[in-house]
Design a protein that fits this description.
The chain has about 350 residues and is an alpha/beta fold. The chain has two domains: about 160 residues, Periplasmic binding protein-like II (D-Maltodextrin-Binding Protein, domain 2, 3-Layer(aba) Sandwich), CATH 3.40.190; about 150 residues, 3-Layer(aba) Sandwich (D-Maltodextrin-Binding Protein, domain 2), CATH 3.40.190.10. It is about 35% helix and about 20% strand. The protein contains 13 helices and 13 strands. The strands form two sheets. Strands 1, 2, 3, 4, 6, 7, 8, 9, 12 and 13 form a ten-stranded mixed β-sheet that branches. Strand 1, helix 2 and strand 2 form a beta-alpha-beta unit. The longest helix has 18 residues. It is elongated, with a radius of gyration of 20 Å. The two termini are about 30 Å apart.
Amino acid sequence: MNCHFRFLFFAYLVLVSAFHADPAEAGVLLQGGGATFPYPLYAKWFAAFSEMDKGVDFNYQRVGSGEGQRLITNQFIDFGASDAPMSSEALANAPGKILHIPTVGGADVIIFNLHNVKELQLDGPTLAAIYLGKITQWKDPAITRQNPGIKLPDEQITVVHRSDGSGTSYIFTDYLHTVSSEWQLKVGRYLSVNWPTGVGLSGSDAVAAYVKNTPGAIGFVELLYAIQNELGYASIQNAAGNYIKASPDSITAALASAVIPDDFRISMVNAPGADSYPIAGVTWILVYEHPQDAVKAKELVAFLTWAETEGQKMARELNFAPLPESVQSRVLTEIKSISAGG
């Protein structure tokens, strides 16, 4: 996000605050921004919490995980959202301690548009070769070998990826980094990488729409975007050698096998276990441990506490995986440490 756009974005937030402010009700508007990955669930959370606590409202901008990290670091918003953990360097350079509050588990799925093909199986090396530009045809032996009995078209693969700083990209490139030494050497893993090939688009909505309207296309989005757009998505070979389709249960299986550190910055791609979906991750809300505004801090703590308890019950219906109770208890303890000005 360039300086001009950042200024406009901040000005927009100020205007929205002014518009929503009602002197009679003295309501609180919590400004947030970042990841598109969890937005369908977060939108439902915001609406439900505002209905319960009519003194608080939310303004959330879907600008990608990278911008979510930058906006919270610069204190332009009250909370950020990211599907990628902030780096230790970025945390050290922030003006205060930023906490990673995990909310739910989710999955990147590999969507495709192939005539009369609804099911597809892919392993990690094949997926890496497609995104490296080494496999360019759907009838490539590496793909046909994994899909016996499926009539793949004699068609060129159109590769689609995110162009913005995206936590969805981080999870996907983290996975490819784990399963492909060539990807690890040539591309790496980050919110935004130098993609070797393909069409770059901003946001999961744009990627889903492009794949839906482009025969022969392949892309990656969060699971719900595939379901909402009625797109086929592939079963991916996991660390145990099984082809697994993304679902709340297979995401939970991956989450259950993960070792979660004290700061909650976790990678769970290619997790062990027979039923684990391999391109899975958690998504975080980023908040300062000691925010400046005491009134907003109180409402933010109330919302996060609700999200980690009652809000978890909404996760499965939107194809996210709720956090295990053992993790929820640890997160609730972390949330209690938030206090304005220390």
